[in-house]
């Protein structure tokens, strides 16, 4: 970030002219599209509301980060486990409670933003080292794996085609093909499912071309008419710990964007502003029945490929997403996607989530020769996965007449954070370019969604 700007980099897209700016904006929209719409398909949330609040959330993020950071906010996969715990089959009456839990998780972004502002990043991140966040991310993917198998088993041919396309595009693809493997996997396997007669388009024919993207009954505000306090508390306690993984992901993405565009966004506008923008965007989306937002690595890949680093291009993509959200017929096409397509794609995605957790541990050189690190990681993994696949599926208890159910992920995350804090011999890490406190301390890395493969960086 301290080197001179690349001579072919474009920081002011107005020099290209409006038509080219619009084309670059469309490219960014399609880069985020495949992953963003897959989250509502997997969870039962509204596709239209998802697109609307991806666009609005991105614009809010840009406003709060002084319009300096070229980041797009799309649907976060990290919260899928939370939606599945509260509404395992996408039950419409239960999803608002899950959204309430996600909105409360968004509040943690605001807390971390304030802590970064007040105390600095190094002191705060000591409570969330890789030995804690790595196993949490691993658990998220493994807990979700059973639903991917169940969906894929409805037609293994279509599912395998989806997996094969993703692998081929990601390993042997070039240019845009390499950074949109999920979208390609969805499109080609969807077309095969259509050819095999696996898709029912009756809903598409009935859907209007224009309509409102948000329905009141799908929002958190609809809970006021028939509020279940126990279910609400369960949702909040179950889902809030997931924000630990997404906040780390956010920091990794901002670091990757900074490296890509040769600007230190960690220093200016600062992580406290970007976290605030991401958190408020997540709260806003959740309250209106859309998935949590997160900064998207796919769009960082587009930045690296095009060398167009002007945040205004990202804002054009956000406007396009908002426009698409007002087309119910488009949303109906997405909702008609068969389970086998979803299963094939999610098999890769859920596995990648767990693999990212492993990479987090490896690249940060977590020392598993230390018994305390083994104990922290072991308890997170065993509690998270063991409880999730137990007969009860959760730890259930009553407080003051209210029944509370803690998911395995919530129990494992809380146990790991507390255990890491109280056990002696913690590993120390530097953060965000700050010098380590000792010469032998490793620099904390964030090998999450925002980091780019070598081939994309060199494109």
Topology:
Layout: H1 18-43, H2 47-64, E1 73-75, H3 80-86, H4 95-119, H5 121-125, H6 130-152, H7 156-172, H8 176-179, H9 181-195, H10 202-206, H11 229-239, H12 243-261, H13 266-287, E2 293-295, H14 297-306, H15 311-324, H16 328-335, H17 339-363, H18 371-388, E3 395-399, E4 402-406, H19 408-422, H20 454-457
Antiparallel strand pairs: 1-2, 3-4
Helix pairs in contact: 1-2, 1-9, 1-14, 1-15, 2-13, 2-15, 3-4, 3-11, 4-11, 4-13, 6-17, 6-18, 6-19, 7-9, 7-17, 9-17, 12-13, 12-14, 18-19
What labels describe this entry?
mainly alpha; 20 helices; NCS2; transmembrane helix; Uracil-xanthine permease; transport; 459 residues; transmembrane
Describe this structure in words.
The protein has 459 residues and is mainly alpha-helical. It has one domain. The chain contains 20 helices and 4 strands. The chain has a two-stranded antiparallel ribbon with strand order 1-2. A two-stranded antiparallel ribbon has the order 3-4. Strand 3 (395-399) and strand 4 form a beta hairpin. The longest helix has 26 residues, at 18-43. The chain is globular, with a radius of gyration of 21 Å. It starts with 17 loop residues before the first helix and ends with a helix.
